[in-house]
Prior knowledge:
The chain is of the alpha+beta class and 159 residues long.
Amino acid sequence: MKKQGGFTLIELVVVIVILGILAVTAAPRFLNLQSDARESSLQGLKGAMAGAGSIVYGKAAIEGKETSGINVDVEGIDTIYGYPTATSAGIAAAVDGLNADWDVVSAAGVTNTNAISYTFKGQSQEGFTDASGCHVRYEQATSTAVGLTAKAVVLDDKC
């Protein structure tokens, strides 16, 4: 009689169970796509704000308004030190579609008057502060000195 080689049914079931356990524990770590997409969208908004701020600063420099510490209009955009202000008449006017596609974060704890934060349209704003959340914070320029010009910061620890 010939001896047949192969796996028994029990061995196959054990392998399938082990693969199932691995899939259940490892898959969520690799498939966190929604959070990654949100973080990438926030990075895109940060880039749009930085680009718009630089373009407005260039226009302000051409007009000789880049050193003014008071609100100055540059082609319909409120600026301070040549960069858009942290208002709807400043950065929101400089970035096309910002008010239409994003919401202003108005949760308790966001109190910086030289900054404005934007999050996803319709997203809950509970627990967002100046230091945490799922939003982009635009900080207007406070001087012409290095490090005090306008900047955008991504806060994505709660996405």
